[in-house]
């Protein structure tokens, strides 16, 4: 019912020439997939993604987008530019953007709206820092973040939005959430989505888990009924581990 998505967030790794070789190798080695694969490289790599991955089973997208549509906004990249480059997805609200660039829920919602206006699918990230989990407040904290980040966001259908639960303490640490903790959070997120968009929508929207996903832990995470794939950082950079994740996703 919900097609598993394995999305590789490359963050600020690889240069365009390295990425071009990687994409060509991926194309050569890609097994037939029932799940969906996507790569999310840095902006300067997107033209290479378009050139090599267009027409393949592998979607691609960006890690961020401007909240502005067009104009005198030095350094910004618009949703329309991403659309022109053939992107299907863009991440919004990654914890690294929230933390290092002061992005608020309101700004994240604005960015999600810009993407939807251009027919792109936001991969909207939420998740709690360690001290919040230790206080036992992970669920209300993350649900509040979800609510604020979806303010005024009206996806036409459930395929037009992806949520990623990424506990901050699990990102790049080698310490992933247990499948049970991830499942409990995903259930709570789906319930909140049902309240906002209706039960039918919530049952079809994909909720990814992110945070130290690797080929050793992915199958257990995926076995949870409400975990619909992974937003993968480190383990998406090397082709063998990305391919291993795709094989586990089926
Ligand atoms: O967007 C991806 C996440 O931040 C996870 O990164 P990681 O797999 O390196 O922990």
Looking at how many chains there are and whether they match, the oligomeric state comes to single chain
Global structural class: alpha/beta
Question: How many distinct domains?
Answer: 1
Mean pLDDT: 97
Which residue ranges are poorly predicted, with pLDDT under 50 across at least 5 consecutive positions? none
Q: How many helices?
A: 11
Largest β-sheet summary:
8 strands, parallel, barrel
Secondary-structure element pattern, one letter each: EHEHEHEHHEHHEHHEHEH
CATH level 3 topology: TIM Barrel
Tally of strands: 8
Identify the overall geometry: globular
In the CATH hierarchy, the architecture is: Alpha-Beta Barrel
- Going by CATH, the homologous superfamily would be Aldolase class I
Helix content: 40-55%
Cα-based radius of gyration, to the nearest Å? 17 Å
The hetero molecules present are:
glyceraldehyde-3-phosphate
- First and last CA, distance: 14 Å
Percentage of β-strand residues: 15-25%
């Amino acid at each position: 019912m919900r097609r598993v998505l394995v999305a590789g967030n490359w963050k600020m790794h690889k240069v365009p020439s390295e990425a071009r070789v990687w994409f060509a190798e991926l194309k050569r080695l890609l097994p037939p997939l029932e799940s969906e694969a996507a790569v999310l490289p840095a902006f300067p790599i997107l033209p290479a993604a378009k050139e090599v991955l267009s027409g393949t089973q592998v979607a691609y997208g960006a890690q961020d987008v401007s909240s502005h549509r067009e104009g005198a906004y030095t350094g910004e990249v618009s949703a329309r530019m991403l659309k022109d480059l053939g992107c299907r997805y863009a991440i919004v609200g990654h914890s690294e953007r929230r933390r290092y660039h002061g992005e608020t829920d309101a700004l994240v919602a604005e960015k999600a709206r810009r993407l939807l206006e251009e027919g792109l699918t936001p991969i909207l990230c939420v998740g709690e820092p360690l001290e919040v989990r230790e206080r036992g407040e992970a669920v209300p904290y993350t649900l509040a973040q979800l609510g604020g980040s979806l303010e005024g966001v009206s996806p036409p259908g459930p395929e037009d939005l992806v949520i990623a639960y990424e506990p901050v303490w699990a990102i790049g640490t080698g310490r992933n959430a247990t499948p049970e903790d991830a499942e409990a959070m995903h259930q709570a997120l789906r319930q909140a989505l049902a309240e906002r968009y209706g039960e039918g929508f919530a049952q079809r929207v994909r909720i990814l888990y992110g945070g130290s996903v690797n080929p050793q832990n992915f199958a257990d995470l995926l076995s949870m009924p409400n975990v619909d794939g992974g937003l993968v950082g480190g383990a998406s950079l090397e082709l063998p581990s990305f391919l291993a994740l795709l094989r586990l996703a089926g």
